[in-house]
């Protein structure tokens, strides 16, 4: 089943990339493995995926031993509390949800203790939903400069989670806004910031049309999660 789902997803990626006059190979899939079993994750790896996204530090800590020699990289894509920054720096290859300077400073210190460099994305909050995390737009420049000035963090780009809206055309402005924010940040001697992580199972085609370089897919790959009893 997974291989069939992945084939369909790749076809949709190719079609969206063609509409945007982009190459599909410039778009990476992050397989969201929240609640997925080790067997399902192994199936994803066997099908050729090399990037996994986990929402919680504890969940990946319990799974990671089975995949340490698999060559995959794991991204923390969920909200990270500052008191878990050291553990996150130790077990993840990248943290995609940095939303404050305090968190960035803790990750930087932890990476220094571990003698490693840590790639990060800034999560930007573009909606007014209380449930969404992310830095406010007005604080984005200061956070970006703080990360760029850090000793051990590499700022690679931006991430956002827009509201869930059935009509994906209503989501398009959020993706377009994130791309503009990234483009604006590139000036004044800042790095290129090549990564735009945006788009999930229901809206990734629109995200690709608006410039996504990474899409985070769970349901589209693994199927719907079983409802809790």
Structure characteristics:
single chain, 9 helices, TIM Barrel, alpha/beta, eight-stranded parallel beta sheet, 229 residues
Q: Topology, please?
A:
Layout: H1 2-19, E1 28-32, H2 38-46, E2 51-54, H3 57-63, E3 73-76, H4 85-91, E4 94-98, H5 101-114, E5 118-123, H6 140-148, E6 153-159, H7 172-185, E7 195-197, H8 204-209, E8 214-217, H9 219-222
Helix pairs in contact: 4-5, 5-6
Task: State the gist of this model.
The protein is an alpha/beta fold and 229 residues long. It has one domain (2-222): TIM Barrel. It is 38% helix and 17% strand.
CATH architecture: Alpha-Beta Barrel
What percentage of residues falls in helices of 4 or more residues? 25-40%
Q: Between the first and last Cα atoms, what is the distance in angstroms?
A: 24 Å
What profile does the largest beta sheet have? 8 strands, parallel
Give the beta-strand count.
Answer: 8
CATH class: Alpha Beta
Dominant shape: globular
Helix/strand order, N-terminal first: HEHEHEHEHEHEHEHEH
Strand order of the largest sheet: 7-6-5-4-3-2-1-8
The third-level CATH topology is: TIM Barrel
- Count of domains: 1
User: Low-confidence runs (pLDDT<50, min 5 residues)?
Assistant: none
CATH homologous superfamily (4th level) name: Alanine racemase
How many helical elements?
9
């Amino acid at each position: 089943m997974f291989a069939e789902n992945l084939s369909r997803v790749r076809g949709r990626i190719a079609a969206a990339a063609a509409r945007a006059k982009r190459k599909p190979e410039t778009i990476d899939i992050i397989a969201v493995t929240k609640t997925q079993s080790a067997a399902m994750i192994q199936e994803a790896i066997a099908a050729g995926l090399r990037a996994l996204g986990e929402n919680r530090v504890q969940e990946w800590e319990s799974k990671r031993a089975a995949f340490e020699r698999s060559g995959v990289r794991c991204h923390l894509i969920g909200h990270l509390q500052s008191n878990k920054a050291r553990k996150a720096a130790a077990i993840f290859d990248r943290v995609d949800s940095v939303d404050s300077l305090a968190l960035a400073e803790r990750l930087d210190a932890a990476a220094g203790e571990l003698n490693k460099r840590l790639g990060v994305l800034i999560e930007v909050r573009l909606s007014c939903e209380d449930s969404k995390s992310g830095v406010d737009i007005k604080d984005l420049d200061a956070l970006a400069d703080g990360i760029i000035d850090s000793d051990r963090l590499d700022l690679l780009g931006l991430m956002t989670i827009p509201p869930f809206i059935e009509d994906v055309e209503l989501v398009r402005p959020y993706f377009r806004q994130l791309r503009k924010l990234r483009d604006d940040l590139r000036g004044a001697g800042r790095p290129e910031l090549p990564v735009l992580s945006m788009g999930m199972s229901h809206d990734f085609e629109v995200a690709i049309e608006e410039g996504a370089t990474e899409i985070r897919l769970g349901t589209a790959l693994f199927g719907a999660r079983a409802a809790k009893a």
